[in-house]
Amino acid sequence: MPKRYLKDFYWKDYALILVGLTIYAIGLIGFIKPGGIVTGGLTGIALLVEYATNGSIPLQYTYFLTNCALLFVALKVLGLKFMIKTIYGVVVLTFLLTICQTYITEPIVKNEPLLSGVIGGMMCGVGIGLVFSCNGSTGGTDIIVALINKYKNIAFGRGMLLCDFTIICCSYFIFYNYQTIIYGLIVMGVMTYSIDMVINGFRQSVQILIFSEKYDVIADAINTELHRGCTVLDGTGWYTKKPTKVVIVLAKRTEALEMFRLIKSIDEKAFISQSTVRGVYGEGFDKIRT
Fold first, then answer.
1. Neighbours of 137 (CB within 10 A)
2. Is the pLDDT of residue 182 over 80?
3. Residue ranges of the domains in the chain?
4. Does position 26 have pLDDT exceeding 90, yes or no?
5. Which residue has the higher pLDDT, 226 or 135?
6. Fold annotation for 204-277
7. Could you tell me the CA-to-CA distances from 144 to 55, 115, 140, 149, 151 in Å, in that order?
8. Closest of 276, 280, 262, 279 to residue 206, by C-alpha
9. Angle 249-254-257 (CA atoms, 0-180°, nearest 5)?
10. Which of 8, 81, 164, 267 has the most other CB atoms within 10 Å of its CB?
11. What is the mean pLDDT of residues 180-202?
């Protein structure tokens, strides 16, 4: 597709990243920080520095200066095109953290550190999920893992998990309290789940492959009774060396049970394969993500 057609979507990406970072900043400053909880990522390191200095070094300063150093290295290795949304995310989040630090001076949820942390984790997860859905980034450990991944065959998710776990465990050397580590890990779990739900959770669909001699009856029934489209492909049973037909159906997860019942009522000997797909876009499903 020519690039001129993609220009209309750029401003939407940056607007959505702004919304996501705003939610993230409020969750971090309004809920997580007052509970003395440490999160993963570079914001977690920045929180550790602020806790250790009793607030003398606000977290946004550590976050911004460390990111500047990382971005300087990453720009040479990964290139400007790859990093432009990360630079935008770092600058905007630094500004938002400063604003929130100025105006949110008291805990939003008082005397409930775990509850406050869970709410903050949900907000941070939703915010980061929106950023990730636009291929944005908040920098920090994302850059570190991306740099390592360029030269070493290390899974990105595993690298992020290891970094976050290490940062949270380091909170023990400030508070000397295992409870802080447990709270941090709970918040990290809530954030991870929230991110996944925003990006993938509500888009999960199923792909069903149906092998049956009554493929034509099944395909017609799927069209007329379930109002779902399907595709019939030609195949060959390699054991029997006989031609066969394969019916492919993409459906929403909630429709899977009804489809199985329909297939069973037509042909109890049908061979069925079901797999989960992260997203299906087009008529009858989600709109193409822009």
1. 21
2. yes
3. 3-199, 204-277
4. yes
5. 226
6. Alpha-Beta Plaits (3.30.70)
7. 26, 31, 7, 9, 12
8. 276
9. 70
10. 164
11. 84
Which pTM value belongs to this model?
A: 0.73
Per-residue three-class SS string for the chain: CCHHHCHHHHHHHHHHHHHHHHHHHHHHHHHHHHHCCCCCHHHHHHHHHHHHCCCCCCHHHHHHHHHHHHHHHHHHHHCHHHHHHHHHHHHHHHHHHHHHHHHCCCCCCCCCHHHHHHHHHHHHHHHHHHHHHCCCCCCCHHHHHHHHHHHCCCCHHHHHHHHHHHHHHCCHHHHCCHHHHHHHHHHHHHHHHHHHHHHCHHHCEEEEEEECCCHHHHHHHHHHHCCCCCEEEEEEECCCCEEEEEEEEEEEHHHHHHHHHHHHHHCCCCEEEEEEECCCECCCCECCCC
Tokens of residue 66, six digits:
């460390």
Q: In the structure, what pLDDT confidence band is assigned to residue 242 with cuts at 50, 70 and 90?
A: confident
Task: Look at the block and give the residue holding tokens 């400007």.
Answer: 80
Amino acid at 199: I
Residue 95 identity:
F
Percent of the chain topping pLDDT 90: 32
Contact 108, 35 (CB under 8 A): no
